[in-house]
Amino acid sequence: MADIKEIIGKVCPDAIFEENEKPFAVVPDRDWHKVAEALKQSGYDWLNAVVGEDWGDEMGCIYYMSSSSDGAEVSVKVATADRENPMLHSVSDLWDCARLEEREVFDFFGIKFINHPDMRRFYLRNDWVGYPLRKDYDENPDINPVRLYHEQPDDVSVTYKEEADGSVKEEKVQVFAPEEFVVNIGPQHPATHGVLRFRTSLNGEEIKKIDLVCGYIHRGIEKLCEKLTYPQCIHFFDRQDYFSALMNEHCFCMCVEKALGLEVPRRAQVIRVMMDELSRIASHLLFFGTYCMDLGATTALFYGIRERETILDILEETCGARMTFNYNVVGGVREDIHPNFVKRVKDFIAIMPSRLKEYHTLVTGNVIFKNRLKGVGILSRKDAISYGVAGPSGRASGWACDVRKLKPYSIYGELDFDEVVMDGCDSFDRYLVRMKEIEQSLRILEQLVDNIPDGDYCAKAPKIIKLPAGHWFQEVEACRGVFGVYIDSKGDKTPYRVKINGTCLRLAGVVDHITRGSKIADLITIGGSMDYVVPDIDR
Amino acid sequence: MNTFDFSIVTTWFDNLLNGVMPLWLTTVIECLLIGVGLILVYALLALFYIYYERKLCGAFQCRLGPNRVGPFGLLQSFADMFKILIKELIPINNIDKFLFGLAPYLVIASSFTAFAVLPWGRGLQIIDFNIGVFFLIAVSSIGVLGILLAGWSSNNKFTLIGALRSGAQMVSYELSIGLSVMTIVLLAGTMSVTELVEGQEHLWYIFQGHIPAIIAFLIYIVAGTAETNRGPFDLPEAESELTAGYHTEYSGIHFGYFYLAEYLNLFIVSGVATLLFFGGWMPLHIPGCEGFNNVMDYIPSVVWFVGKAIILSAVIIWFKWTFPRLRIDQLLAFEWKYLLPFNLVNLVLMLIVVAFGWHF
Amino acid sequence: MEVKIKGMKKEDFKDNEYIDKLVDELKQSGQNVVVGKLDQLINWGRSNSLWPLTFATSCCGIEFICLGCARYDMARFGFEVARSSPRQADFMMVAGTIVHRMAPVFRRLYEQLAEPKYVIAVGGCAVSGGPFRKSYHVVKGIDTVVPVDVYIPGCPPRPEAMFYGMMQLQRKVKVERFFGGVNRKKTREDFFKENPLIAEEEHVKE
User: Fold this and answer.
1) Residue in B62, B323, B324 nearest the CB of A302
2) Is the pLDDT of residue A1 over 60?
3) ipTM over 0.85
4) Neighbour-count burial of A256, counting CB atoms closer than 10 A to its CB (0-12 exposed, 13-18 middle, 19+ buried)
C-alpha cells in the first residue's frame, strides 16, 4: 500500500495531515471527491464509517476507509463552516453504502450532499423541525411534540446537482410513480424482525423496487451519550443490537481503554472473549430459528431457542441478566465468573455438536428449504464491499472480512480458529456461514474454557474517567458484522460525540439491490438471510 | 357382515314420523334434524381439531401445549369459541360490503355441503348419490370462490395478493385431486360413495390397487394439503409474508369461519382419503383371518371412519410443522411439471392394471 | 366475586389493589343472576383465550419470543395463537420503545384491534420511556398514546414477569362485564377525549 500522504497529496496539495491513532487527513470539500476516488483506486475500497459531527465552528464528516484485503486504514475529515446551508460533495457514486450513510448525516446535521441522488430525511419524520445532533439543536418538546397523525409519504425526493460551472441546482426526483402498486412491508410486519419498513413496488409477485424507510425505533442513543459519563454510556450499547450486547459493550470499553491507555488484565480479556463467543452462538441460534420461521418451518425456532436458553442460563449466572447485561466496564468486567461457569460451558460444548446435527437433519437437508434459498439474493463480492456488507453475510460472498482476523483485537490473535468464507454468494451460503461459525465459536470456547488465567478481572480505572482530547475509532466483529464506535472527546467527563456504526444499516440497505426482479417470498428469504436487527439500524 | 347398520334406525324413525304426519312435514322435520345434527358435528369436530392440532404441534416442538383450561387443556377450544363469538365485527370503510360479508359463508358452506356425502358409518349418510365423489369434488371447489372474494372485497393489498395466490394454487391442485380420485374410481368402477365403501369390504383399495393406488394416495395427500391451504402450501395466508393473507381484514366470527373451515377442510380431505383408499367406515379386514375380521367388526363403523380420518389428518398436521413454505412459482411448477404428468401416467398404469386384472 | 386463576394462588395477587378496588365496585352495584352467570361464562372464555398481536419493536420482543417457546410456553394458558393481523388479536404486548415516528402507526394498530382490546406495556421503555426517557425522539410512556391495562416493568422483563402481567390481565378481564355494568368503553372514550387524534386533513390545512 502506497503512503497515504503520497496518494492524497497528489490530488490535493492543500491536505493537512494530523497525528492520530489512524492515518488522518483534513481535506477541503472541493477536492474531496477526487481524493476519495484516488483512495478507492489505491486499495482503500471499504468505507467503514461516515461520522457526521458538529465541531461548533464547522460541521462535516469523518470518513473511515480501509482496505478490504489487508485492513489498512485511513480516515479523512471533510468540513464546511457554513451553518445555514451546509453542503459537501457526496461519494455515493463511489461507495453504494454511502447513499444511506449520507442521508443519515443529512437527517442529523442538515448537511446536504451534492450529487447525492436522494436527499430525504431518513430516520426522522419528514415534518421534523431541526437537526437533532447539531450542538445548537433546541430540544423543547413543543417544537417536536408526539405527532399522532401520519406523515405524508414523500414520493418526490430532491437531489442537488452540480453544474459544470460549479453552481448547485436543486432537482426533483420521483421515487415511485403514482401508478405503481406499492405495498408496505412493515413497519408492523412479522417478517421484518422489528419495525423496519420496506415500501415495495410490485409487478404481480415480482419486486420492482424497494424504498427503505427507517427510524421507527430511532431512540437517539448518540445524542443521549453526549450527556452521560463514559461508564453511564455502556448500557446503551446493550440495547441496540441486543443479540451482540456483549460485543458492543466490549467495543465501547476498548475504545475508551485505548484512549486512556489502560491495560486490561488477561483474565478479563479471556472472560470477555468467552462471553462474546457465547453470545455469538446464541445470536446465530436465534437467527436459525427466526429464519426458519420466516420460511414457514416454525418448529425449527423452538429447537434453536431451546439451546439458546442454555446459553442464556450461563450468561445470566455470571452477568446477572438474560439480555441486557451491562457486564463490561472500563478496564475489564464487572464481576468475576460464577463458580459454575466452567462446568456449564463444558456441558454446553459437549451437547452442541449433536444439536447442530439435528438442525441440519431437520432443516438444511430439506429440499424445499434448499430450493427456497439456493441462488436467491446473489450478492457479488464487489457489491458486498461497495455496500459495506461485512460479517457473515459478506463472508458468504467470498469476502474475508472478519475483524478478528483482519485487525485482531483482544486475544483473538493468539486463538486458533478458522474464518468461514464461502463463495456461493446466495442466501443458502449466508445461512451456512452462520451455522459453521457456531462450530468455530465452539472451538474458541474449547480452547479457553480450561485456560482462564488467575488474576484481576478488572484493571484499576480512574474513579472519574476523563478522556484526553482527541478522537478514536474502534471496531469489533459482532454477530452481524463489523461494529464500530467513534468517540470524540474534548477532555471532559462526557464524550463530545459518540457515533455507533453497526453493520445492520448496510445489511438492510443492500436489500433493494439484490431483491430486484425476485418474488415477494424472496424478499423474506433475503431479508432473513441478512439477519439485520432493527434497533441497530436506527440506534 | 356384522357391523351395525344405521339405516335400520333411520328407516324406523322415518316410518314412525310418516305414521303420524303427512309426508311433507316428515321431510321438513327430518331436514331440520339433519341440519342441526350436522352443525353440531361440525362444531364439535372443529373444536376437537383445534385442540388436537395444538397438542400435536406442542409435541413436535418439545412443549406442552394448552393444559391450564380444563383438564389437560380440554376446554381451551371452548374458551376460544366463546371469545370469538362475541368479538367485535369491525365495519370497514371502502370495501364491497356484500361480497365481504358473503365470502366467509361461501367458505363455510362449501365444507358444510361436503359433509353431506361423507360416509360416516354404515347407513349413516345424508345423501347417497350415484355420483357422490363427483359431487364432493364439485362442492369443495366453492371454497376457492369464497377465498377469492374475501381477498378481493377487502380492498387491501395483502389480501389481494393472498387471494390471487390461493386462486392459482387451488385451481391447479384441484386437477391433481381430480385425477387421483379418478384413478381410484377406475379401480372401483363406481362413483357412488356407498358402493365405493362396499367394494373395500375384503381389502382396502390402497392394497387392492397396490402400486398405482399407493402413488395415487401420495399425490392425493400432497394435493389435499395444498387444497386446505395448510403448510407447506399455506401461501395464501403466509404469515411471514402477507401478515394473515386473504383474511387479514376479517375479525370476530367472520374470521372464526375461516379458521373453522380450515380445520374442517382438513377433516374433509382426510375423510375423502379414508373413503377412497382406506375403506371408509369399513373395518380392517384381512382376507382369510375370519376371527380377526369378526373382532374388528365389533368396533362401530363411525369410530372406524372418524378414527381413520383423524389419523390421516395427523400426517397433514405433521407436514405443516415440519416443512418450510414453498414459493409461488415453485408451488405451481411442482403441480404442473411433476404432479400432473405423474398423475396422468399413473392413471394409465391403473388402467393397465385393471384391464389385465392384476389387482387383488 | 372471587377471581380464580389456575396455577397461581389468590394470595399471590393480593398486592394488586387496583383490581381489588374494581371488584369491590362491582360487588356494590349488584347484578342479575342470569346475566351474572352468562357474564362469568363469557369472561371465562375471554380470559382464557387472549390472542396476542405479534408486535415487537426491540429487546422485549425477543423475550416475548422466548415466552412462546418451549421453556416458558405461553400456549399452556391459551395465549397460543399470536395473530399478525390486528383485526384478529385481543391484546397487544407493546414490547419495546415507541418513538415519535412509530407513535401514529402504533395508534392506528390499536384502533385496528377489534373490541374487546387490551394493551400491556412491557418493559421500561413502554412504561415510561425507560433508559431513553431523555431522548428527543422517544414517547415518554405509551399511556400518552393509548390507554394501558397492565404495566410490566423491567428492561427487558423476564418471561416470568411477563406471565405475571398477562395473568393480571386475565384477572382484569374476569371482573369485567359484557352485559352492562362496568365495562371499559367509557374510560376509553374519556381517554380519547383527553388525547384527541389530530386528523390528517386538519394538519395538511395548517
Assistant:
1) B62
2) no
3) no
4) buried
